[in-house]
């Protein structure tokens, strides 16, 4: 019996859709370069399967969060340009050199530390400089930039190839923060030598040409999340999650369902128990709020979601669809990660990165596709 | 450079504390048997490291959610009694036989299917029967039990060794559901031959002797979650999660922090950015609500939690504690998973099962401990 036949949760990732999304964004921003953000294992979807497909499609630059992810990506893509967003954290500079990883330098302390390392002549790769323009998370402040500008030998030592910043409110096109941050980046970058600049991630790309600069850094949009919340999603759907029905119960007297007895059944109802729970990343906050799709019909979550199981009310679904062994769609063409996130009280990003470990995963639409 | 030195998130699991918790419960319920629920990879904490320690301490019976988990556990514990809560889902009966896994049979259809398989003489293991007493999730209804009682040859064919049910409100000792479910189990079990019975999981154990029956099935309490919410936790803490500070920022003018600019800094503040985000299972719902501990002080989350990063306000923390490279405690002795769950709007169970994949994990207090 194959793993697939035994699986109770099936996660299908459409790599061809990811590639199509990247190509669409790449065409949209040309002549700016479109990189790909593949941190957190491609938002939980499998860097090993996705990064090679993006590279084959022409993507040359990649962003990861930390040095461990950079080392993992280097094994997959020997020739790619790999940026590590956290930069060196002290003592790990040699790893950046050994694996040819470009550190994103986020503070004056990181810059001086890296300059010291680079001066030792140990083959340090080039670097990117991150300027804070209002996110107040990582990046150099104006004061730090002024101090750096006073020491051009340090800037020369780190051989910068990119100046970047990050928008705080890009998913709200009406926010005055966006234009303000772009203006600030332009102004602060003047403290540095002329370099390619980057400020736009997925949502920022859709703020207009002025935000594309030299390079854009889409992540969420590649994986099918809507970069323009509240407007039609221009990206192709990527993820499909299905849960297997373990049992169908007929309830004919008034009873409660699940932990805490939070859901009460009044009339004659049919309940389907699916072998997916919050340990699989199907958020507990979907209890009594989320829904699934089966046979083209919407079925509501009944009661609290358990660790390994979720109960749906399938009263109106014909028995040929709702039977033990049948699949209920939990994320898919009619139920986007953004929609699930709305019902769970979070954002699509967290839905993707939380997708559990017990799913059987399939990658489709790639030469390296495997089941 | 070791993986540990490069790690930005460090998860330490005290296996000795898990064993101590199991021993305490075992002594509490004796002569009833204390099993261990190790589903979902021991609630996300690593079955491979924990199950052998429990077995060495004397635990003989284990519960997993699905057949894949059963097969994985059989590789670790060749001689243990392993129950699979979902039972066979059609076509996978041979896997139960091949790996000597006891199916928990949750419906009349599963029972008749398993009886048919067992009659083929293919070495089917014994089985457990799950009776629903009010959870309305999995388990035989009274009607199904009456129909089963009319066909004793089916019951004989499956060789049942345990009758079990599951409490819906065990964490609320005042709920009338508890006694009602126990009474219902006693009454419905009379349709079957005399067998050991089980109804209590972690919280049920603390409802009193009457709920211990032949076997108890603790999971959460083994892993340090409080089986009696609102009262002092009788269990030892198991999990410690630390995040490394990537950068410390001094902010001296009124500014906003993070995505959506939801947090506003008014005076002179010091902010620490930690390399743990919601992709690591540090829930996004902790944004502007959660806290960490450093140098014995409580530090609040400032702004929205990002995928890879969380910002804390460390203004009041001395610089010898809050500096790049230092650790902030996110779960630990002073910040239980239950407490984090309160702040995140969920339960400790979901905090544990969501702990991310990027953590560097250490198991301590076991002969098989490794770093």
UniProtKB/TrEMBL annotation, chains A, B:
It comes from the Bacteria. Its cofactor is pyridoxal 5'-phosphate. Gene3D superfamilies: Alanine racemase (3.20.20.10), Lyase, Ornithine Decarboxylase, Chain A, domain 1 (2.40.37.10). Pathway: Amino-acid biosynthesis; D-alanine biosynthesis; D-alanine from L-alanine: step 1/1. Coiled coil: none annotated. GO terms for cellular component: cytosol. Substrate binds at residues 137, 307. The active site is at residues 39, 259. Its EC number is 5.1.1.1. It catalyses: L-alanine = D-alanine. One of its GO terms (molecular function) is pyridoxal phosphate binding. CDD domains: PLPDE_III_AR (cd00430). Residues 238-364 form the Alanine racemase C-terminal domain. The modification N6-(pyridoxal phosphate)lysine is found at residue 39. Keywords: Isomerase, Pyridoxal phosphate. NCBIfam families: alr. Catalyzes the interconversion of L-alanine and D-alanine. May also act on other amino acids. Belongs to the alanine racemase family. This is Alanine racemase. It comes from Paramagnetospirillum magnetotacticum MS-1.
């Amino acid at each position: 019996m194959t793993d697939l036949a035994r699986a109770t949760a099936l996660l299908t990732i459409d790599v061809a859709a990811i590639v199509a999304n990247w190509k669409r964004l790449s065409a949209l921003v040309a002549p700016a370069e479109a990189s790909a953000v593949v941190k957190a294992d491609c938002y939980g979807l499998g860097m090993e399967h996705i990064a090679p497909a993006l590279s084959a499609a022409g993507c040359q630059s990649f962003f990861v969060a930390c040095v461990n992810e950079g080392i993992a990506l280097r094994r997959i893509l020997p020739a790619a340009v790999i940026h590590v967003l956290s930069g060196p954290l002290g003592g790990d500079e040699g790893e950046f050199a050994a694996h040819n990883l470009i550190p994103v330098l986020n503070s004056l302390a990181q810059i001086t530390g890296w300059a010291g390392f680079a001066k030792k002549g140990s083959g340090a790769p080039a670097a990117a400089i991150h300027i804070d323009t209002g996110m107040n998370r990582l990046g150099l402040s104006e004061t730090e930039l002024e101090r750096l500008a006073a020491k051009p030998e340090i800037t020369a030592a780190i051989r910068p190839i990119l100046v970047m910043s990050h928008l705080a409110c890009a998913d709200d096109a009406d926010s005055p923060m966006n234009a303000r941050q772009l203006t600030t980046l332009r102004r602060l970058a003047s403290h540095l030598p002329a370099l390619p600049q980057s400020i736009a991630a997925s949502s920022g790309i859709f703020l207009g040409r002025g935000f594309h600069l030299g390079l854009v850094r889409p992540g969420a949009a590649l994986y099918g999340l809507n970069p323009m919340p509240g407007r039609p999603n221009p990206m192709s759907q990527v993820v499909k999650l299905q849960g297997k029905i373990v049992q169908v119960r007929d309830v004919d007297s008034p009873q409660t369902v699940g932990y805490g007895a939070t859901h009460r059944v009044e009339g004659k109802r049919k309940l389907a128990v699916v072998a997916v729970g919050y340990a699989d990343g199907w958020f507990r906050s979907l209890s009594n709020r989320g829904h699934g799709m089966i046979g083209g019909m919407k079925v509501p979550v009944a009661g609290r979601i358990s660790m390994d199981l979720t109960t749906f009310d399938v009263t109106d679904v014909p028995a040929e669809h709702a039977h033990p062994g049948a699949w209920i769609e939990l994320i898919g063409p009619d139920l986007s990660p953004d929609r699930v996130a709305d019902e769970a009280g979070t954002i699509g990003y967290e839905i993707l990165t939380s997708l559990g470990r017990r799913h059987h995963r399939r990658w489709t639409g790639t030469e390296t596709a495997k089941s």
